[in-house]
Structures are given as C-alpha cells and as structure tokens.
Amino acid sequence: MVTMQQSAILKAPERFFINGEWVKPASDKRIDVISPVTEEKLISYPEATHIDIDRAVSAARMAFDEGPWPRMSARERAACLRRVATLISERLEEIAWAWTTQVGAPISLTRKLVPQNATLFSHYADLIEGYPFTDIRHRDDGGEVRVLREPVGVCAAIAPWNAPMVLLSYKIAAGLAAGCTMVAKPSPETPLEAYILAECIEAAGLPRGVFNLVPAGRDGGDYLVRHRDVEKVAFTGSTPVGKHIMRVCADRLARVSLELGGKSAAVLLPDADFAKALPSLMVYSMPITGQVCFSLTRLLVPEARKREFLDMFAPAVQALKVGNPADTATQMGPLAMARQRDRVEGYIAAGRAGGARLVCGGNRPRGLDKGYYIEPTIFSDVTPDMTIAQEEIFGPVVSVIGYSDEDDAARKANATPYGLNGAVYSADPERAFAFARRMRTGGLTVNGLIVDPKHPFGGYRQSGMGREGGREGLENYLEVKTVHMAG
Ligand code: NAD
C-alpha cells in the first residue's frame, strides 16, 4: 500500500488534526488518490466520518466560545499568522511537488505559484493590524454609535482539487484573521497540502481547536455544511454544488461565500495588437490543462481579423509541450483524473456535433499512452448558443468567437450564466477600460491577466457570491454589530 508518507514528509498522515492534536480516525475508511500520470494508486489516506467531523466542529465551537482566539487583539492574531506564513515559506518546494503529483500541474508552474500561500497569511496579518474593527460614528442627536466588526463564528472551508492549497489558504487566512475558528475539508483528490497547512498552523502555536482538518469526500462535505454548529461555509467548487450548499445553508441562515465556475471571455478589441496579447493568452486560456476557474476560455475576435488571429494563435497552441508535469520543460500536463478526461472528451464531441470548426487538437496526444493527457484544442466559428460556449469545460478547450462591432462583442461576452473573470485587449488602455465596464464579471484585466491574492477575487451571477482576497475577503468572515451609546 502506498501511503501519504511516501509522497510528502508528513508528521501524522494516518490521523486528523482536531483540537490541536493528531487524532486517530473513528473508522478505517480510506480514500485512494490516483496519479494522473501513471493512472496508478499514488496515495491512500483515512477518510473522516461523521464522528470525526462532529469532533472537529465541536473543537472549533469550543475554541470560538471559550477560547482566546476571537477575543485576542488583531496584533496578537497577526503575529500568529505571520508565523504560519514563515513556516509555509519553508515548505514551498514540497507544496509545489504535492500539487504536481496529485493534479498533474507542471512543476515549472506550481513552483511559481506556491509562494501565494505564504503571501495570503502575511497579507491578512498586515490587513487586520490596520483594519477598523471598531468604527465610531454619531447619530443625528449627537450620541455616539460604535459599529463593531466581529467574527462570524465556526466556519467550514471546503476546497476543490485544482489549486488545492491556495484555495484553502484564501479561506483559512482570512477566517483566522477575522477571529473565526475553522474546520477544513480539502478535496478527496488532494489531501497533502491541507496536512502541510495543519502542520504549519500547529507549529505556529495557534490555540487548540482554532484550526481543524477533516479530509473527506462529498458525503463528509455534505455532513459538514449541514452541521448546526457551523455558522458559515466558505466554498470553492462547481456551480451545481455551490447552489446545493446555499440551499442547505438557507435552512438555518448560515453565512455562505461561494467561488464557483467560470466561462471567462478575452475580448480583443478591433485595434488590439495580437502579438502583444499572445503571451498572456497562451498562459491563461488553458492553465493547468484548462482546469482553472478563471481561464480565458472564450476568445472574442473581430470577425474581419479572425483568420489573422488563428494564424498566430493556433501554431503557438500546437507547439505547447505536453508531457510529464515533473519535467521542468513541460508546459501542459495531463488532466487531473479519468473523469475529467471523459468530461473534456464529451465537450470536444459536443463542439464537433454542434457545428464548431476544430482548428487543432481534439485527440489524445500520440506517444503518451499512460496518463490522462489530451491535446490542447481550439474551436473556431463558435456561436454563443453552442454548448461549448455556454458550459464550463474545465479542460484545454478554447472557443474563438467572431464579433462585428463593440456592441456585439459586449453582448457575446456577457452571454453565459457565469461572470468570474475576463480580459480586454486594446492599443488604448482607456478604451479597454471603458469596455471592461460593460462586462458583467467580478474581475478583469486590461491587456493581460492578473490575479493577485491581495485584491478581491470572485464572481458575478452563477460564478459565486462574496469575494476572497483583500479587505473584501476578510469581511466575508465578519458580522456587523451596532452599539448605540444612549447615556
Ligand atoms: P466540486 O464542486 O465537485 O467539489 C468541490 C469540493 O466540494 C470538494 O471538496 C468536494 O468534496 C466538495 N463537495 C462535493 N459535493 C459536496 C456537497 N454536496 N456538500 C459539500 N461539499 C461537497 O468541484 P471540483 O470538481 O472539486 O472543482 C472544480 C470546480 O471548481 C470547477 O467548476 C471550477 O470552476 C471550480 N473552481 C472555482 C474557483 C473559484 O475561485 N471561483 C476556483 C477553483 C475551482
């Protein structure tokens, strides 16, 4: 049996982190993780059951109700978070390899991105030291009003597999900064980073029960969000599961923040310099084999310049080096799991059947017989009503959509139920900015793509509710209390 110990240097891979201790699971249930490269078992680890989850929630409850954490000063909490950031920084190489081996993301990319985890903890440490947790205002009668921001309480943090640690760090760093206590449930496909995070939090000396880790699958996640002691759920994942969680939480009005799917558009305005746009389109139209929520999967190009665009974009996509993600020269690894490849192949078939023109890709790459590889794929002549233009594929499949003028481009850019991200390219940044204001999405970049965890990130419409990162990310975990001083 391959265990987690062999994939990362973990302190207690057969246990859960609950109430400040590494405790034995209540059952012998296990979860297997399959390598996207070898298609063989990569790791096996214990699955938390309802009993373990009850223990974790009650530890978080006690730490919130009786512990010092919510009542510590912002300065004291910030010092703890900075220690966590330092400890994460010491393990970046291990975190990068965990991401690469479980998900198939190229090591050259994961190495670049993992410092964000430490950044998030130090960012929230800095932010709370200057944050107005108490705001003094005055009534019309001159009386004083103290508006307090207080932690929401016990929070569940549920993350997906594609960017496992950073999507957990957004939640844990902001929630802890606010003074909440946390129960983390990573995705069943990617437990390693959550264990590393738990070890860093333990070593940083946070009080018992403030952070708890219960690795589990869908059943455990469902039990956790239904738990009456959980006062807020922070979820990143698919839109259907996000809707389900919101319905469940509505019953007891538990707070919810949702980071969901996307179908983001890059709009190349008529005056855009395609050669200048190419580098960011190459990186962000299909990062991590297209398994990133904010990927720019719909490329809107002036109808008259479509051929010019494809003549430049298609050869660049075909030249991407697809292969083993552990190889530093690899630009695109496999899809993360067999069901992901089935899904992506289903959408490629739908694109063909729906009348889109396959420009390149669409097949499993030759010479890569093992692993969930798929060629980077471009469809052209895509119309907004087609399935591949409407639904999140979560794979390396890009749709090129022609438009006649800016009004047509704006209509087409907004013609999906999502609204997570976007990009607008123009020779004139202010023209691009003016167009950006017409796009109904939670984030945009003019002439490129930037996602910076120190600034708010999240979706309009069916891409989510609430924001992660920045001050808005902290406010997800705060309630407002108004105290009138009457005498
Ligand atoms: P998923 O919705 O299947 O699962 C996400 C998490 O929810 C996992 O931990 C899973 O175990 C858990 N879960 C599943 N069913 C649950 C239930 N009924 N109750 C509680 N928890 C449950 O998504 P996925 O396949 O892991 O991730 C891919 C999706 O995540 C894509 O749609 C992608 O766009 C989205 N995503 C969004 C963002 C963002 O910030 N907006 C970032 C990354 C990924």
| Number of individual domains | 2
Helical content band: 25-40%
Cα-atom radius of gyration: 23 Å
Main sheet?
7 strands, mixed
The CATH homologous superfamily of the largest domain is called Aldehyde Dehydrogenase, Chain A, domain 1
Helix vs. strand class: alpha/beta
Task: Give the N-terminus to C-terminus distance in angstroms.
Answer: 69 Å
Bound molecules: nicotinamide-adenine-dinucleotide
Number of helices: 17
The CATH class of the largest domain turns out to be Alpha Beta
Strand coverage percent:
15-25%
Descriptors:
Aldehyde Dehydrogenase, Chain A, domain 1, Aldehyde Dehydrogenase, Chain A, domain 2, globular, alpha/beta, binds nicotinamide-adenine-dinucleotide
Quick structural gist:
The model has no long low-confidence stretch (mean pLDDT 97). The longest helix has 16 residues. 54% of the residues are buried.
Describe the structure.
- This protein has 487 residues and is of the alpha/beta class.
- It has 2 domains: 16-260 and 464-485, 3-Layer(aba) Sandwich (Aldehyde Dehydrogenase, Chain A, domain 1), CATH 3.40.605.10; 264-452, Aldehyde Dehydrogenase, Chain A, domain 2, CATH 3.40.309.
- 38% of the residues lie in helices and 20% in strands.
- It has 17 helices and 20 strands.
- The chain has a 7-stranded mixed sheet with strand order 14-15-16-13-12-17-18, sandwiched between helices. The chain has a 6-stranded mixed sheet with strand order 9-8-7-10-11-19, with helices on both faces. It has a 3-stranded antiparallel sheet with strand order 5-6-20, with no helix packed on it.
- Strand 8 (181-185), helix 7 and strand 9 form a beta-alpha-beta unit.
- Nicotinamide-adenine-dinucleotide (NAD) binds next to helix 8 and helix 9.
